[in-house]
Amino acid sequence: MLDLAIIGGGPAGLTAGLYATRGGLKDVTMFEMGMPGGQITGSSEIENYPGQGEIMSGMDLMQNWPEQCQKFGLKHEMSQVSRVTKNGDIFTVTTSDGKTQEAKSVLLATGSVPRKAGFKGENEFFGRGISTCATCDGFFYKNKEVALVGGGDSALEEAVYLSKICSKVYLVHRRDTYRAAPSTIEHMKACENIEEVTNVTVEEVYGDASGVTGLKVKSKESGEIRDLAVPGVFVFVGRDVLNEPLKQEDGSFLCDLDEQGQVIVDLKMKTSVPGLYAAGDVRIDAAKQVVCAAGDGATAAVNIIEYLG
Fold first, then answer.
1. In the annotation, is 69 catalytic?
2. Which of 171, 106, 128 minimizes the C-alpha distance to 42?
């Protein structure tokens, strides 16, 4: 029986494995179908990770993490977890090939993925001018014009963030009203360099070998096409939380989630089910930054050791 089953091999899962094994847990397995590292390995440039003075790719940042985190006994099983259940004090982890393992505790660190808007050029230019992280990539457009697609709280908050870096932000939204909180809308409207481009559809993001050079939007009222010449497009149309392993046979979930499907945790990363923890982007109020996910993993591991002790 495992002391701890970690589901997910990104920064949260890897750090949890390091702290748990170094902290004395003997049987700890991390379930990750591919190579560990997480979504950040797809980022081309990172310059805001503490202690890393040079700009590097996500792959470069994460390359040494698996070896360090496995040094104290963390095992890596290349399997996808399909379901986690609990009977009494014991969890059962079922993988997609039908195999099961029992565990005294479980950490869910599967993360979330940005939802795609579905416009032409989105896949082609993702990472080459299209981004889903203003904190990560906003600085590269300092004193330049950018466009942001979305109309919820996150979109408006990120537009305000970008307005402090960029010379102008075009806020592109398919409706003429926003889904954000009134206070967030008021804050956005107070920014003089945010121009609202509403009641439009994104027809296309285009560019060249160097990346994005602009996007075209179409008015829903007149059908007029407007061309916005920008080198950067940020997309915030929601995220899909990877909470499938928590789904039970009857359609319910093993622990409490919020309306967006994010796992509700306290400051110790505890869920509503004793012995079940969640860390990183899968939890509520996650900052969606590598350093924060790693911190979550360490916090969870320290408290799992206490729980098992």
1. no
2. 128
Q: Which residue reads 């919820």 in tokens? A: 152
Task: Please pick, among 27, 60, 133, 153, the residue that the annotation labels catalytic.
Answer: 133
Catalytic: 136? yes
pLDDT at 218 over 80: yes
- Dihedral of alpha carbons 51, 53, 54, 58, sign: positive
Element (H, E) at 299: helix 290-308
Residue with structure tokens 């014991």? Answer: 90
Count of other CB atoms within 10 angstroms of residue 47: 12
How far apart are alpha carbons 193 and 141 in whole angstroms? 14
Delimiting residues of CATH 3.50.50.60 domain(s) in the chain: 4-114+239-308, 130-235
Just give the CATH number of 130-235. 3.50.50.60
Residue type, 167: S
**Site of tokens 């939380």:** 241
Which one of the listed residues 3, 137, 281, 296 is annotated catalytic? Answer: 137
DSSP SS3 for 168: strand
What digits encode the pLDDT tens for the residues 38-60? 888 866 678 788 998 888 888 89
How far apart are alpha carbons 239 and 123 in whole angstroms?
Answer: 16
Out of 3.30.1300.10, 3.30.310.50, 3.50.50.60, 3.40.30.10, select the CATH number for domain 4-114+239-308.
3.50.50.60
Instruction: Report the DSSP beta bridge partners of residue 102.
Output: 92
For residue 282, the number of C-alpha atoms closer than 13 Å in the C-beta half-sphere is: 31
Give pLDDT, residue 39. 80
Q: Which residue shows structure tokens 């009134």?
A: 182
- The pLDDT value given to residue 44: 62
Set 69, 136, 166, 255: catalytic member: 136
Beta bridge partners of 172: 149, 197
When pLDDT is averaged across residues 186-214 and rounded to a whole number, the result is 97
Alpha helices for 99-152 (secondary structure H): 134-137
Query: What does DSSP say about strands 211-219 and 225-228: parallel, antiparallel, or unpaired?
Result: antiparallel
Q: Is residue 258 annotated as a catalytic residue, yes or no? A: no
